[in-house]
Amino acid sequence: MPKEQMEIYVDGKVIQLNDYRKLEIFGARVKGVGTKDQQKGHYEELLEFAGSTKEGNGYPIPLWQLIQATEISFEIEKQI
């Protein structure tokens, strides 16, 4: 059994991600991909943050987008 698993159901298709290593697509012509590496984006996120602070270009994600995502999550919570 995978440690981490995500399933997405959309347009009669199922997209299944197992342990960030194997991506399968059911109900589509494309069947999926696999890799031995388990990339979750943590390392890349740290590199981006370090680069932006060194160069003084600001945060990788603009503040307005962070605020917008927070407001959307609050609205979803309210409607649930």
Structural commentary:
The protein contains 2 helices and 4 strands. The chain is flat, with a radius of gyration of 18 Å. The chain has one domain. The mean pLDDT is 88. With 80 residues, the chain is of the alpha+beta class. It is 39% helix and 25% strand.
**Alpha-carbon Rg, integer:** 18 Å
Give the mean pLDDT. Answer: 88
Percent range for β-strand residues: 25-35%
Total tally of structural domains: 1
**Structural class from helices and strands?**
alpha+beta
Helix content: 25-40%
Shape: flat
Number of strands: 4
Q: Main beta sheet: strand number and arrangement?
A: 4 strands, antiparallel
Distance between the terminal alpha carbons, to the nearest Å? 31 Å
Low-confidence stretches: none
